[in-house]
Amino acid sequence: MSDRSASPDPPPADDAGAGADADAGAAEEEVKLYVGNLSYDTSEDSLRKAFISCGSTISDVFLPTDRYTGRPRGFAFVTLTGGSAAAEKAISAMDQTDLDGRSIRVNVSKPRGESDRGGGGGGGGGGGGGGSGFNASGLSDVKLYVGNLNFDTTEDSLRDVFSKYGTISDIFLPTDRESGRPRGFAFVTMPAAEAEEACSAINETDIDGRTVRVNESLPKSSGYGGRRGYE
Predict the structure, then answer these.
(1) Terminus-to-terminus CA distance in the chain, angstroms?
(2) Residues near 225 by Cβ (< 8 Å), separated by ≥ 6?
(3) According to the model, what pLDDT value does residue 168 have?
(4) Is there a contact between 86 and 31 (Cβ–Cβ < 8 Å)?
(5) 3-class SS at 24?
(6) What DSSP letter does each residue of 69-138 carry, written as one string?
(7) Residue 154: which pLDDT band, with cuts at 50, 70 and 90?
């Protein structure tokens, strides 16, 4: 029988080191935010300064322009480092705040295949409920958020656009309580199937000279991703 002693057990895994690596990875993760309802006077520099002032670390700012006129299209994309925690902090600080005279909207931007373009990622048939797409709650009527509106857009002009896709039960065009001036966004309520069709058709089209954003409006308690909350 051999007197050789048994080989020593391998050292335990460094769990603390793995945790530190995970934390570092989260800190380096980038998240792209959509910023809508911008003034045409807003520049990349003013956007950068606004987000930095709320504690964000910015890796990129993209302000799309019209390919023919060169004029800003009224929305932007701001990329942050710090993952979902940084995104939540920025959205909480910046959404529905005033920038260059307009009440801006901020949320997480997702690839069109994943996001709720037209309100949902293929909810189908008016969103029968129980899923994560359009009208996941299965409501008979759906409220749509319409952002990046021209200050000159009226309820009548919105009705003209949306009524092509179905019956409108309500239009709400919020105004500033002090000045009475429109805030640059609206809510349109329609039957679910018609709302989904309108959402898909009208999103990122031109109304009164501005490229509007349309999606399903959900209560803010539903989370920060993808959809705007109710007023």
Answers:
(1) 82
(2) 107, 108, 110
(3) 94
(4) yes
(5) helix
(6) T--B-S-EEEEEESHHHHHHHHHHHHTT-EETTEE-EEEE---TTTS-GGGSSS--TTT-SSSSSTTTT-
(7) very high
**Of 223, 171, 173, 174, the residue nearest 195 (C-alpha):** 171
Q: How far apart are CA 213 and CA 210, in angstroms?
A: 10
Spell out the residues 6+ positions from residue 117 whose beta carbon is closer than 8 angstroms to its own: 200, 203, 215
Structure tokens at 219: 């209560």
Q: Which amino acid makes up residue 115? A: S
- Residue 146 pairs with which residues in a beta bridge? 186, 214
Q: Which of 165, 185, 174, 204 is nearest to 64 (CA)?
A: 204
Q: Determine how many CB atoms are found less than 10 A away from the CB of residue 225.
A: 16
Q: What is the distance between the alpha carbons of residues 146 and 187, in angstroms, rounded to a whole number?
A: 6
pLDDT digits (tens, 9 = 90+) for 176-225: 888 888 899 999 999 988 999 999 899 999 999 999 999 998 876 554 44
Distance CA 31, CA 57 (A): 11
Q: What is the DSSP letter of 170?
A: E
- The C-alpha atoms of residue 183 and residue 128 are separated, in whole angstroms, by 32
Show the tokens assigned to 82.
């710090």
The phi, psi pair for 145, rounded to 5°, reads -90, 130
Is 152 strand, coil or helix?
coil
> Quick one: 119 exposed, middle or buried, by C-beta within 10 A (0-12, 13-18, 19+)?
buried
